[in-house]
């Protein structure tokens, strides 16, 4: 199991605390420093069953500067979104946990972390 975190994020710290309390075996990826490639983002999206706009933090300054609200949310625009997430990793929703069964969850709640642990 791997968890993508921003150490400054309280949701990430809460997820790590719960993983530790449950004795989970996991690897931490500080995705602002170890930026995922477009292909890694596509792979995680596939595991999540989501589209790139579903995991984009649209309230971030970079999102506003890029004008993401006006970008099409369709198959034709998908790669543009993925490239934006790779170029501006702060836009990626966090934390993301990749589960042992090949799936993933955006673990913003205790329930989501427990869901990842049960997979």
Structural overview:
The protein has 119 residues and is an alpha+beta fold. It is 40% helix and 12% strand. It contains 5 helices and 4 strands, in the order βαβαααββα. Strand 3 (96-98) and strand 4 (104-106) form a beta hairpin. Helix 1 crosses helix 5 (110-118). The longest helix is centred in the first third of the chain and has 12 residues, at 10-21. The termini are close together. The relative contact order is 0.22.
Question: In summary, what is this structure?
Answer:
This protein is α+β, with helices and mostly antiparallel strands and 119 residues long. It has helices spanning 10-21, 38-48, 61-66, 78-87, 110-118, and strands spanning 2-5, 27-30, 96-98, 104-106.
What characteristics describe this protein?
119 residues; alpha+beta; Glutaredoxin; 4-stranded mixed β-sheet; 40% helix; globular
Biggest sheet: strands, sense, closure? 4 strands, mixed
Report the mean per-residue pLDDT as an integer: 97
Strand arrangement, largest sheet?
2-1-3-4
Q: What is the number of independent domains?
A: 1
Strand content: 5-15%
- CATH class type: Alpha Beta
CATH architecture: 3-Layer(aba) Sandwich
Give me the secondary-structure category: alpha+beta
Poorly predicted ranges: none
Write down the CATH topology. Answer: Glutaredoxin
Q: Give the oligomeric state of the chains in this entry, treating copies of one chain as homo and distinct chains as hetero.
A: single chain
Q: Write the element-wise H/E pattern from the N-terminal end onward.
A: EHEHHHEEH
Helix content: 40-55%
Q: What is the CATH homology-level superfamily?
A: Glutaredoxin
| Rg computed from alpha carbons, rounded to a whole number of angstroms | 14 Å
